[in-house]
């Protein structure tokens, strides 16, 4: 009997997978990722128990499909990964799909659902393309394994209509699906459950402001266990700046940036229709455009190497702060915890310290030793608040989107 789940998190520049033994809760048995697909050379990282490997593959891995095929080849041929040696050992493949349109829950891929997802691709050309390429590949190469897709947008279905709706012509909005969807929901779902457990509160009584700050960054207001607002919108471009994304700008800026804005970008393909404006705001903006680096650890430093680095840091802090204030008010000041997650939220003590200092008026105060140390490798939630007084706790939560998908599968079977 097949015993493993393969969880796939495909991004525009990386493909990350984890294999889990089909147990309750799922147990990770191996992790593999290819990063740098769009900025060669690509790197391959592999971890199985204590064994770790990192190398630059000889193969030319320039698409998510190439990367995924390479990962499978490497994992299936690892003699010490006996649980997953072939297709027969896999029970399910979970795929993170960023934009799920009106889908409210995970779905199994068949001809009809795949077709529907392909129609959504136009709404999210940058974000769904890699995942769909891998789903198509799995159907071809691993046809006996069920592919289940999990949507980043599904968590935010609970946002009220006046939060979801944009103030534009509603007939056009409805016909074209133009509304706020919100993303990073697989991560928010993991964080909500983990933090509620940590606080010993039922999920449905838990109120949080959660920041998922990575190379894509968003923030979410959770009231009584439900998303009531989030910073990303129709696409993941809205809201906070990211490594290469502008985040919110005046929409008119597009028309003044270049007169080519509306035409097809050279990066556009037969399957991925991308305009010059989308390409610039998604891939040529953010802190990369300000400083030249996508690596936020070079920006979040006590003595920034240039004025541009300082500006990038200050902009990120300012935009996050704006949402914290907004969501604190929307939650009526009833906030159980302010939660830092995502690669940057989990690792940058300076970002946490700076934000906490600016949130003192909300009663936020952090312990500098606990903050500097950060979370241990196997510590899902760490409290970095000062004292044990009343008011919002400040927590770090090491989020895990691959685990969340495998967990949902196991839970739905039990
Ligand atoms: N110590 C650190 N301080 C600040 N940023 C960091 C640190 N370590 C990693 N990062 C940043 O985390 C980001 C990646 O976060 P992650 O959530 O993995 O992103 P994504 O899933 O969107 O690719 C990168 O911008 C990286 O530079
Ligand atoms: C939705 C999104 O921006 O995802 P990521 O942070 O993985 O790029
Ligand atoms: Mg991510």
From TrEMBL:
Pathway assigned to this chain's UniProt record: Metabolic intermediate biosynthesis; acetyl-CoA biosynthesis; acetyl-CoA from acetate: step 1/2
Species of origin: Penicillium hetheringtonii
Entry-linked HAMAP family: Acetate_kinase
GO MF annotations, alphabetized: acetate kinase activity; ATP binding; magnesium ion binding
Key words of the record: ATP-binding, Kinase, Magnesium, Metal-binding, Nucleotide-binding, Transferase
Enzyme class, UniProt record, top EC level: transferase
Binding positions for Mg(2+) per the UniProt entry: 9, 401
PANTHER family xrefs: ACETATE KINASE, ACETATE KINASE-RELATED
Pfam families cross-referenced by the UniProt entry: Acetate_kinase
Residues at the catalytic site: 152
Entry similarity comment: Belongs to the acetokinase family.
Assigned EC number: 2.7.2.1
Known cofactor(s): Mg(2+)
The protein's name in its UniProt record: Probable acetate kinase
Residues the entry annotates as binding ATP: 16, 212-216
Swiss-Prot/TrEMBL site (Transition state stabilizer) positions: 184, 245
Gene Ontology BP annotations: acetate metabolic process; acetyl-CoA biosynthetic process
Catalysed reaction, written as an equation: acetate + ATP = acetyl phosphate + ADP
Positions that bind substrate: 96
InterPro entries attached to this UniProt entry: Ac/propionate_kinase, Aliphatic_acid_kin_short-chain, Aliphatic_acid_kinase_CS, ATPase_NBD
């Amino acid at each position: 009997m097949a015993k493993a789940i393969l969880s796939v998190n495909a991004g525009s520049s990386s493909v990350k997978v984890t294999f889990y033994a089909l147990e309750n809760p799922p147990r990770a048995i191996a992790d593999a990722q290819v990063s740098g697909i769009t900025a060669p050379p690509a790197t391959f990282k592999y971890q199985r128990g204590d064994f770790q490997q990192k190398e630059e593959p000889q193969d030319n891995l320039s698409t998510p499909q190439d990367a995924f095929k390479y990962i499978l080849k490497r994992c299936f041929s690892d003699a010490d990964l006996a649980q997953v040696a072939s297709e027969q050992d896999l029970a399910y493949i979970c795929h993170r799909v960023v934009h799920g349109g009106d889908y409210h829950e995970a779905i199994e891929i068949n001809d009809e659902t795949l077709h529907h997802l392909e129609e959504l691709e136009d709404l999210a050309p940058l974000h769904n393309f890699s995942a769909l390429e891998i789903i198509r590949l799995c159907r071809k190469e691993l046809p006996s394994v069920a592919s289940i897709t999990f949507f980043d947008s599904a968590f935010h279905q609970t946002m009220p209509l006046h939060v979801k709706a944009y103030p534009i012509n509603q007939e056009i909005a409805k016909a074209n699906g133009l509304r706020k969807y919100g993303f990073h929901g697989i991560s928010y779902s993991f964080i909500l459950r983990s933090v509620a457990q940590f606080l010993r509160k039922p999920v449905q009584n838990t109120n949080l402001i959660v920041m998922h700050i990575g190379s894509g960054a968003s923030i979410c207001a959770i009231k009584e266990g439900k998303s009531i607002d989030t910073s990303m919108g129709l696409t993941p471009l809205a809201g906070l700046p990211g490594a290469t994304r502008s985040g919110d700008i005046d929409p008119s800026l597009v028309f003044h940036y270049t007169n080519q804005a509306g035409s097809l970008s050279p990066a556009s393909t037969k399957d991925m229709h991308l305009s010059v404006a989308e390409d610039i705001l998604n891939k040529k903006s953010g802190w990369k455009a300000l400083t030249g680096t996508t690596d936020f650890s070079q920006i979040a430093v006590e003595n920034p190497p240039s004025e541009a680095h300082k500006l990038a840091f200050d902009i990120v802090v300012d935009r996050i702060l704006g949402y914290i204030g907004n969501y604190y008010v929307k939650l009526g000041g009833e906030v159980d915890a302010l939660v830092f997650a995502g690669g940057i939220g989990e690792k940058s003590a300076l970002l946490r310290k700076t934000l906490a200092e600016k949130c003192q008026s909300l009663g936020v105060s952090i312990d500098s030793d606990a903050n500097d140390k950060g979370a241990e490798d196997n510590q899902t939630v760490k409290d970095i608040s000062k004292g044990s007084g009343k008011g919002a706790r400040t927590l770090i939560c090491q989020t895990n989107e691959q685990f969340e998908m495998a967990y949902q599968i196991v839970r739905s079977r039990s």
